[in-house]
Amino acid sequence: MNKTNLPPKRPPYGIIAILLAGAFVSILNSTLLNVALPSMMEDLNVGATTIQWLATGYMLVNGVLIPTTAYLIQKFSVRHLFIAAMLLFTIGTATASIADSFAVLLIGRMVQASGSAVMMPLLMNVLLVSFPIEKRGGAMGILGLVMIFAPAIGPTLSGWIVEHYHWRTLFYMILPFAVIVLLFAFFKLKDTKEKVHLTMDALSLVLSSIGFGSLLYGFSTAGDKGWDSPYVYGTLIIGALALVLFIFRQFKLDEPFLDFRVYKYPMFALSSAISIVLNMAMFSAMILMPIYLQQLRGITPLDSGLLMLPGAIIMGIMSPITGKLFDKYGAKVLSIVGLTITVITTYFFSKLSIDTSYSTLLIMYSVRMFGMSMVMMPVMTNGLNQLPARLNPHGTAMNSTLSQVSGAIGSAILVTVMTSRTKAHAEEIQNSIMSKLTEQPTAEALAEIKNKIMVDSMINGINDSFLVSVFIAALALVLALFIKRVKQNSNEAPIKEQA
User: Fold this and answer.
1) How close are the terminal C-alpha atoms of the chain, in Å?
2) Domain spans, the chain
3) What is the reported pLDDT for 496?
4) pLDDT per residue over 36-70, tens digit each?
5) Where would I find the Major facilitator superfamily (MFS) profile domain in this sequence (predicted)?
6) CA neighbours within 13 Å on the CB side: how many for 50?
7) Which of 81, 228, 254, 380 gives 20 to 30 Å between its CA and that of 426?
């Protein structure tokens, strides 16, 4: 085998460190705003539907641009691509920090998203080409630390800042870190890359943007607007048709925009299926827990974030450890153990009551995160290990895109289940209470009855939604039984680091 096709003996740790810092900042930023949205609504004088576009718009830009990263990674050097992405992210952060209207703030967020969309696929691709297969688990474990820890501490940090400072502080805090990473990248990030003659297929770009963008918008608004809304099913139909046309076109191109031939490799296809299913289940706690804690239990955003912080720390500690275990034992054992823990703890979450103690919730959530820490990166790494080097950019772009789409699908399904089951439980509880009344209740008693119906029905609806996610996680567990360890010689081209 040609030596130039082997990973370098000494991986480019300088490049990886800079990319990790950029990815951490961008991922942390993506979750900071969720807790602050109510404060922004009041300050900017907009409604809930409007302010939600700060999250939806960010997600849509990510979903549209991530599929393009396979082309960008092949076309441009790591240095040029990362500096461009970090510059966009920094400009977006600065714009958002001085925004005096919702429109300017939304523009800032979407410019941020255009930069952050490139970060994770680029970093993942660098790790793949920098380490041999037998050492990739440890490397991807460090990546998992960034992917898991940054978004997990976001709500806690955001809750504390919003309680004590203005929401603009969220951007003021991120901006200097973004500038520092950008400066380090400009002066220290050097890599060599042969000039590649690739042409952008304009039709593929249009079809990809319409397809993934419409699917993400449709699923992300289904929980709020309902599945019978023309905005929902209309965009889903348009997205599905555009995506079918996009896929067919890729098989006809000599240089596909996003190569779906990655699914000819069975372990990559299996890892994608498990990741999609697990992403859907994972969103149950991320969406349902804040509703339960803040709306029903009256727990502050800060305390809600603190409840989830130990789980984030556990995942952060476990991610590098899991990577080393993956290198030694493979993905199958880890994923089966992790998914078994995930299924059991998710089942316990389907038994919530208004009296469930804070400590019980904290322990259950932390154990659930411990289980999930053993699954995501090992399964993803095992699938990517089967791909030849030329398909690495397409594999990483595909994983990142499907993560966005499956998260939106999971959110839509679980919110729909919660909403519909809450309504059904409310009718049942109301009929049960009214049938036992012997006289007309007073206005005060009637208010108490209505409050009890609302609380009990919503808790039952949340429990039903968690129960659905139990079956979703169980499906991932069944799929994990078919994992086989990939044993293949690595043939990645190295990235040359210069002093």
Assistant:
1) 28
2) 3-189+255-420+460-480, 200-254
3) 43
4) 777 788 888 887 667 778 877 887 888 888 888 88
5) 15-488
6) 12
7) 228
